[in-house]
Amino acid sequence: MIPYGKHHIDEDDIQAVADVLRSGVLTQGPAVEAFEQAIAEYVGAKYALAVSSGTAALHLAALVAGVAPGRSLVTSPITFVASANAAMYAGGRVVFADIDSQTINMSPDSLKVALESNPDVCAVIPVHFAGLPCDMPAIKAAADRVGAVVIEDAAHALGAQYSDGQKVGCCANSLMTTFSFHPVKAIAAGEGGMITTNDEGVYRRLLRLRSHGINKLDDPFEIPEQADTGGVRNPWYYEMKELGFHYRITDMQCALGLSQFKKLDRFINRRRDLVARYDEAFVGLANCRPAQALGRDQSGHHLYVIRIDFDAIDMTRGQFMLALKEKGVGSQVHYIPVPAQPYYRKLGHRPDDYPAAQQYYQEALSLPLFYDLAPDEQERVISSVKALLS
Ligand SMILES: *Cc1c(COP(=O)(O)O)cnc(C)c1O
Fold this sequence. Notes:
Bound molecules: pyridoxal-5'-phosphate
Largest sheet: 7 strands, mixed
Number of domains: 2
Order of helices and strands: HHEHEHEHEHEEEHHEEHHEEHHHEH
Shape: globular
Helix content: 25-40%
Radius of gyration: 22 Å
Number of strands: 12
CATH topology of the largest domain: Aspartate Aminotransferase, domain 2
CATH architecture of the largest domain: 3-Layer(aba) Sandwich
Strand order of the largest sheet: 1-7-6-5-4-2-3
Distance between the termini: 23 Å
Number of helices: 14
């Protein structure tokens, strides 16, 4: 069975993790900082903070952006639930802005409408769907007009670049960018996430929130009389300044992430080649087309999604997926629109309010895309899909 996605681990990765296990330090050691530094340098951001997951990264970013009871954030309906859940963790509310049918990313025009009718919005979370960068200048301009902070959900987009050549994560048009290192993403740390920013105040706040809200770096003490005895600093003393979390990541995970990171460009080049072959196979077919045809040189190529007119081929998507499975080809749907989830329906959200997302969802199918997908396996995927279409 060919899965839709899969990580690639080599002996260097195994050695990197084993080295940590032999080093005597399992967490908060040198691998965390080394991984953070490598990512910050690569994306071109001043600061990077590693956390336990991409979801934790979104949660902390939403808090720093000011999401709280009475405040809301806007995100795309076509994303993993975590982008929206960040609002709920922070005690706020989520608003959705429909997608652009050509990019499957948040439409800046829909965002403007959402911002006009929701004056409590303090953050916007565009999602670089399947690795294709969003129209960040337009999103940033719309957010600036209402004083909202931009947080890029780049869980799909490590290694992607904007049309001006800058790397996703440089935060040129956002306050923060979040990444995920779950095994299906560009590089794997087992579990893990990262937040990049150019703002020192944001970085310091994130550093505290990652570890219980306890003071970090040279944060001044709030109660100096507890901190000193006779003018001498008490060596055991620390202060918890706000309610933070335990969202730290281990050295084993960061050593794996760093070792994987060294292969990132190789991983992405391979994905780009596979995508080019798929595009060649699926362009010009009846009832089937690539969901994203733009920005092929910019994308991180996390997913390869085709859109099929299932009514026209007189098959349900479930039947189509089962038929592929019988030929040994795995497939998946990314994503069920978040407002269609029972939890969000109960909060009053309706998927029908986002017609472009609904239309996309009816037709979407993700095909296998990963570093180790062999040429003959890819040809099997292509011929299996084509056979079902005719
Ligand atoms: C994977 C993913 C996340 C969450 O990342 P985890 O590391 O699994 O917590 C958030 N947003 C999107 C778009 C994702 O694909």
